[in-house]
Amino acid sequence: MREATGLKVPKASVEKALTLLMQRGLLSTELKIRPQNGYIHIPLSREPFAWEFEMIRNKVPEVVLCDSEFPERQEKITRFVDFLSDELPPHLLASLPHAVDFVGDIAVVEIPPELESHKLAIGAAILKAHKRTKTVLSKSSPVNGAYRLRTFETIGGEARTQTVHREHGCVYHVDLAKAYFSSRLSYEHLRVASLVNENETVVDMFAGIGPFSILTAKKHSNVRVYAVDMNPDAFELLRKNVLVNRVMGKVTPIVGDIRNVVNERLAGVADRVIMNLPERAIEYVDVACRDLKPEGGVIHYYQFVDTPEPLDTAKNQFVRALKQTNRQLIRVAEARIVRGIAPFKYQVAVDAEIK
Q: Which fold has domain 80-160?
């Protein structure tokens, strides 16, 4: 047994907590989880930053950070960092990225400037540690432009950006260079789809390749989803994913600018609107309000925030934008941190009931 910092989590939330920790590289590979008095204690590889713990606590509210005794693993789980311990000096090992995003058989990593000359070694190490991974991509630019795209460089394996990704029983054809997709939003896709009620009409205003729309249709027997995106490449992937997942008739893919689409065919039809464009969603609150049925509905609003009070900031900015429309806020059903983007920068979700 060895004492270490860990998370105390209710049994029902263990799977969610483990997923979050693995995404951040926070799960210890040397110690085992252990049950105690109806809870599960999960060992950490390091103490989380304050913003990381806040992100975890927003998704698993009952979690507690504490020191505990953990049994040691007899065989250590291999991490890509382990393959680099003899190649990089200690000060550079400390700069290795904590998280790797996996989309299908592609691993996506952000290489800090001080490790640029070692990127091929990092790519090779990731391939060794993750046998199912065939390609390692390094982010070469931030997400930008109307289509929310970034450029990539292949630093390991096959030179491609296309793959097939599986999530919550759905299959998605993805091209990371042509259409935005983030595997880190997996829980958010499930959360929103689970909130939809039977017989609702949903408008996914910035649908991309369809993870919100398709999962919603798969989870409910009687829903109508309009999935809109202005990126023609995303639209073609969306159409393919609708066919592959057999949700034709439930999901209607539409290509075009959401302002024009709502004005021409979707005004007043929606019980629920999804606004997953955190860079610019504030500019489209008026469009979402026109999209809702006359009696109102629910808006799932997303925003990037880099202030000390991210939840209050996102709620206040949404409410101010709403006041410029002919709609009124009934209540904010939930405001939550979806994920950390950088230290003290978050993606926030606001679920608002509107009349």
A: GMP Synthetase; Chain A, domain 3 (3.30.300)
The β-bridge partners of 42 are: 7
CB-facing half-sphere around the CA of 286: CA atoms within 13 A? 8
- Which residues, 6+ apart, have CB-to-CB distance to 306 below 8 Å? 342, 344, 345, 346
Question: What pLDDT is stored for residue 78 in this prediction?
Answer: 65
- Is 184-354 a CATH 2.40.50.100 domain? no
Q: How far is CA 144 from CA 148, 179, 226, 276, in A?
A: 5, 12, 25, 15
Residue 204 near residue 213 (C-beta atoms within 8 A): yes
Q: Compute the distance between CA of residue 347 and CA of residue 311 in angstroms, rounded to an integer.
A: 10
Q: Is the pLDDT of residue 98 over 80?
A: no
> Does the pTM exceed 0.90?
no
**Percent of the chain topping pLDDT 70:** 99
